[in-house]
Hints:
- Helices cover 72% and strands 0% of the residues.
- It has 89 residues and is mainly α.
- It has one domain (2-76).
- The protein starts with a helix and ends in a 13-residue tail after the last helix.
- The mean pLDDT is 89.
Amino acid sequence: MIFLEAFGSVLIGFAMALGAVRRLPDRFPSRPLTLGTGPVASLFGALLTHAVLGPGHAIATLIAGAALGVALLSLLLRPASRVRRSVTA
């Protein structure tokens, strides 16, 4: 069962990272970094949650893994670039 939780969390993390890169391509520093961070962070979150809750909590494990994946992906997010306008008098 732990294998299915781990595999599911990796898939969820990759889907979140892919969606983030497609939705906001100019706000992430590197596409490979983003696509690698999502699954790894989600897997770490799922394994940590499984260690804390124990077996039998698959849905909670996947949700917590996704939450950690989102949190770490948000750390990669750069601020939106602002258009500078020069004021001529």
